[in-house]
Amino acid sequence: MKASDVMTRDVVTISRGTRVREAIRLMLEHRISGLPVVTPTGRVEGILTEGDLLRRSEIATERRHWPWLEFLIGPGRSASEYVRTHGRVCDELMSRDVISVTPDAALSDIVELMERHRIKRLPVIENDRLVGIVSRPDLLAALARVLDQPQAAAGGDEAIRERVLAELEKLDWAPRSGLTITVSEGVVELDGVILDEHERSALRVAAENVPGVKGIVDRLVWVEPVSGTVIEAEGDNPPPSERPPR
Fold first, then answer.
1. Which of 117, 146, 175 is the last residue of a domain?
2. Are 164 and 206 in contact (CB under 8 A)?
3. Are residues 20 and 132 in the same domain?
4. Is there a domain that residue 77 lies in?
5. Most exposed of 11, 132, 206, 228 (fewest Cβ within 10 Å)?
6. DSSP string, 173-200
């Protein structure tokens, strides 16, 4: 999937001259946490986010510096902070270094940018014009649509077992030996030895995501590779889940 598949196309925007009070009203009214700042032709000049409005004199959240620190950081830095905590026009507060993507940007690249720069939204720009925005809620909505899609036909127990084995074959961390998988009436039984307790949960998740699986029985034994200590699964296995077949 790419940006154009998930982006919000009807973007709420502001201009550089928009008053801060109006920008806040738009954020609250539309339940969004950021507003692209655009020209009349749609060119993005900046972005105003909730983070730009957290430090404000009106609610006494501006930073307080010790006098000696004021001396070290200099009058320019202090003056800049004053503008951000007291400014009433978006041009005075907005972030000018806007990170954006194109409509054909892959979702994996979008998520990487969000994580690397610790941001929640990315304007989508084509031919120097804003055509959409991808936010974290847009990504969640895309995930929900995929999860709601009907699954392939389950088939019988042997077909389910083959699907589980095929899934594990694709995973580098999955044990290649010492693991036995059987399926009875849609219930996957995991038997064998694992060398890391994290593999237990991962194996369960891999099996649960296979269409037709109704439950998991975990009989895996964890052997701590350094000491050789044998640790079995905690407690009794729960009964197969009652969720409908995928």
1. 146
2. yes
3. yes
4. yes
5. 228
6. TS-SSSEEEEEETTEEEEEEEESSTHHH
Q: 42 or 68: which carries more pLDDT confidence? A: 42
Determine the structural domain holding residue 140 and report its residue range. 3-146
CATH number for the domain that contains residue 195 = 3.30.1340.30
Q: Go through 94-106 and write b for each residue having 16 or more CB atoms within 10 A of its CB, e for each that does not.
A: beeebebbeeebe
Q: How many domains does the chain fold into?
A: 2
Indicate whether 225 belongs to any domain. yes
Lowest mean pLDDT among 3-12, 24-33, 145-154, 223-232: 223-232
161 pLDDT higher than 60: yes
| pLDDT band (50, 70, 90) for residue 155 | confident
Quick one: pLDDT band at residue 242, thresholds 50, 70, 90? very low
Average pLDDT in the chain: 87
Q: Is residue 246 situated within a structural domain?
A: no
Nearest residue to 44 (alpha-carbon basis) of 113, 80, 98, 118: 98
Look up the pTM and report it.
Answer: 0.74
Q: Which single residue is written with the structure tokens 């978006």?
A: 90
Cα–Cα distance measured from residue 42 to residue 40, given in angstroms and rounded to the nearest whole number:
6
